[in-house]
Amino acid sequence: MRTNPLTKPKYDPNSVQAVVMLAPMLIGFFLFTYVPIFYILRYSFYQSNGFTETWIGLENFVRIFTRDLPYWKSLGNAFILSFGKLAVEIPLALLLAVFLNKALKGTGFFRVMLFLPAIISTAITGLIFSLMFASFNGIINEMLLNIGWIARPISWFSRKWSAMLVLGIASVWNNYGINMIFFLMALQSVPKELYESADIDGISSARKFFHITLPMIGPTFQVVVLMAIVGSLKMADLILASTNGQPAGQTEVVMTYVFKYFFGYDGRTVSVGFASAMALITGIILALVSLVYLKTSHKLGHSMD
Amino acid sequence: MKKHILQRTLSKLLIYSVLTLVFIVAIFPVLYTLLGSFKGNMELLTEGNRLFPRKFVLDNYKQAWQIANFSQYTLNSLFMSGSIVLGTIISCTIAGYVFERGHFKGKNLIFTLVVSSMFVSLGSLTLYPVFVIAKFFGINKSLWGVIIIRVFGLNVTNLFIARAYIRTISYEIDESAMLDGCSFFQIYHTMILPLLKPLVATIAILEFRHSWNDYLMPLVFTLSNPKRMPLIVGIMELKSSGEAATSWNLMLAGSSIALIPMIVVYLIFNRNFIEGLTAGSVKG
Fold first, then answer.
1. Contact criterion met (CB < 8 Å) for A127 and B255
2. Interface mutation target, options A8, A22, A146, chain B, most CBs of B under 10 Å
3. ipTM
4. Which of A147, A195, B225, B253 could form a disulfide with B60 if both were Cys (CB 3.0 to 4.6 A apart)?
5. B3 or A181: which carries more pLDDT confidence?
6. Looking at the structure, do residues A105 and A84 belong to the same domain, yes or no?
7. pLDDT score recorded for residue B70
8. Cα(B96)–Cα(A73) distance, rounded to whole angstroms?
9. Is A184 found in the same domain as A39?
10. Do A138 and B48 lie within an 8 Å CB cutoff?
């Protein structure tokens, strides 16, 4: 950036202006997007508490792969939570989109209201759900007691799987809306004639859905699910705002686990190098997941060819 | 024929029941928060099973506003979100304009570099290095850091939306302005920018949602300076303060203070919201 040849007067003044206009954003972009990546690459070979640093070669990676079981557990939790909740979230979003696409009375109202949870802060979502599911005085327990489904209040957050269940519910609540809207947009672009000719042939609604609708929205479906997977694996705010990894770190996900090592949050010592190495590995794993997903869903994305 | 009509009615019934059920689940937590914030502290601690308060009281808001510093948090949130929205409108329209209409060596290479950053999926894991860089420039202890990073950090989604929108504007406008002797910047300033109102609305709403709801980055930048915390961070501080059990009333009132502006903006601009969110992500 320092020796920009374009600032010489023999160049087109409009090009100079273009570069000058863009420069602040470009500097910002490289500083806050590319430099951090190189920072992480470099520090993954160091031991550092944020003030002093020592080169330790591959030691951080050795530690991750041989001695740090909680990292892999947190990664496993992120996967279980993501795929578990997406198994509900994606079909639900698609079903709602199909219903909203039927142009029945009141769909405008439902579209606006069903999307409402999607505009609410993930952190606030975590807080609200942890209050609603509180073991003492929580409204969910009270309701379940009143209708007689449970005999005693459930302590949702003191066992791993019930805590994960609540996290999953909260996450579906917060995120189904956005996927619903994506699907709805895709459905609205399917030409009506296809359905009309299918009607003439007397084809059932179920077959219409699987043989016309799904192939037509295939490419959108593929992208939406990819974004949903990557987004869920990167979940952090929700966990920090509700369970914060409790009980005993059993609901920690990979993003919160690494975050805590970077900042020495929640009683951990700052270990920038170790955290960088974990960030690097997590980034690679996320990239691999996307790659595998795109390979296996190739047919979906090209269903219109 | 009769069977057909019966089938139609049944399927309509099914659709409406599913939509209504999801509608109830969708608004329940919001109602729980808003209504709960009007309950008295005693009522909150003893009667969690009631959705509606027995008596509406404003005590929680008074306490949150005066004692728990929420007036300051709200100001901070307004300041942070307002600055980010304004700044992003300018930075994104300029970036979109330059990438769409500008000519200079290396433009395509730079654009590719910007876009390819989307594939590096580190999320909040780059927060620490970003913080260290901010420290280097001395902007790590206030919301200015967050604002500068968000405004100049160039959000790729916004860039895509802006570039695609500017592409739809006819070149003839640029050409006639050029004949009148307008420079590249003057064309942006006097001709293009006034045509970007729908784009500006979309970006403003997306950025408002993002910055108003953001948690981790403002948390990191205000850890050593609690006076500068925005609402979301302030509410979470209550939760982790160890007095969580006794401060339900403050958490509910605080959450409501954070929710209400967002919901109002959404109900007024819901069309732009939905269009904006989809424009960037799928078409991009």
1. yes
2. A22
3. 0.86
4. B253
5. A181
6. yes
7. 87
8. 42
9. no
10. yes
Closest-approach residue (CA) in chain A for B44: A137
CATH code of the region B60-281: 1.10.3720.10
CB B71 within 8 A of CB B144: no
Lowest average pLDDT, out of A65-69, A203-207, B201-205, goes to A203-207
Chain A contact present for B160, CB below 8 A? no
Q: Please answer yes or no on whether A114 and B255 come within 8 Å at the CB atom.
A: no
Task: Judge if A54 and A185 occupy the same domain.
Answer: no
A37 touches chain B (CB under 8 A): yes
pLDDT higher than threshold 80 for residue B72: yes
Q: Left, alpha or beta for A154 (phi > 0: left; psi -120 to 50: alpha)?
A: beta
Q: Is B188's Cβ below 8 Å from some Cβ in A?
A: yes
Residues A17 and A109 in one domain: no
Same-domain status, A34 and A153? no
Over residues B202-237, the pLDDT tens digits come to 888 888 988 999 998 999 898 888 888 999 998 888
Looking at the complex, report in whole angstroms how far the Cα of residue B104 sits from the nearest Cα belonging to chain A. 5
CB contact under 8 A, B215 and A230: no
Best to test chain B binding among A1, A25, A30, A221 (most B CBs inside 10 Å): A25
Q: In Å, what is the CA distance from A85 to each residue of A51, A179, B107, B129? A: 40, 13, 42, 31
Task: Look up residue B67 and give its two tokens.
Answer: 């004692």
- Helix B248-281 vs helix B197-213: crossing angle, to nearest 10: 140
Q: Which of A28, A27, A60 is nearest to A42 (CA)?
A: A60
Q: Could you count the other beta carbons within 10 Å of the beta carbon of residue A241? A: 25
Q: How many domains does chain A have?
A: 2
- Residue-wise pLDDT tens digits, B144-198: 999 999 999 888 888 888 888 888 888 888 888 888 888 889 999 888 999 888 8
Domain containing A216 equals 65-301
pLDDT tens, residue by residue, B182-195 = 888 999 988 899 98
Q: Could you state, in order of their start, the residue ranges of all structural domains in chain B? A: 2-36, 60-281
**CA of B89 vs chain A CAs: smallest distance (Å):** 12
Confidence of residue B282 (pLDDT cuts 50, 70, 90): very low
What dihedral angle (degrees, nearest 10) is formed by the CA atoms of B119, B124, B128, B133?
60
Are the CB atoms for A66 and B191 separated by under 8 Å? no
pLDDT of residue A76: 92
Check CB contact under 8 Å for B153 and A275.
no
The fraction of chain A above a pLDDT of 90, given in percent, is 27
* B211 vs A: CB within 8 A: no
